[in-house]
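Hey team,

Filing this mostly as a record. A colleague (T.K.) asked me to run one chain through the structure pipeline before their review meeting, and I want the input and output archived in the tracker in case anyone asks later how it was produced. No errors, nothing strange. Just documentation.

Input sequence:
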Amino acid sequence: MKIKVFYLLSLCIISLLCSCKNSKSSKTSESASVKSITTESETKSDKDINDWFTAKVWKQGWNVKADESLNIKDFAYYYFKNPDRWNKAFKFLAKNNLKAIKTGKYEIDGKNLFAAVSEYESKDENNAKIEAHKKYADIQYVITGEEQIGVLPLENMKPFIPYSDKKDVEFFKTDMTNYYHHADSSNFFIFFPNDAHRPGVKIDKNTPIKKIVIKVKLL
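Output structure:
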């Protein structure tokens, strides 16, 4: 009788040990999976990143090209840290009639992801500020009209107005020239913390612009 009880107790202990081991293994596997997602862009080769980018799955069916100023490696790095967030951003662009959308702010995923639609006239260069952000990336798309957007490396900028944590923006000055890109309904821009940008600059004359800016939280 004692032998039988001992035998049953032994089976229970072995079963519990196996269960704990499997649970630990499952958690380790899950942790490794999450880690692999957030570090995927760091371990991929340049070819892998270019293949991922040119496949365009990340665009969620939005048929607009990325401007050549986009840093693909930076995009891959931030995309794989929050793929769901970026997918929601591009779905918003793909699924909505942007020409008909009203001006205003649109929450897509609370403070993590939102859009601002505005209408304005393109500016003289002297009236367009050079800016950069720390917490959010910008997806900027000119829905109607056309303008120039200056794109510059942050390291070459001269501080002008200090960073505002509340507004997530800092302004700069530069002596650089020839840094403008044409922006219209055929292309979009993405700006990361290292990208200083000067949007809204007129081409030949001041003209009406309708633009959407999607703010993607990076932290």
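Quick notes for T.K.: Residues 1-38 have pLDDT under 50 and may be disordered. The helical segments are 2-38, 40-43, 46-55, 72-81, 83-95.
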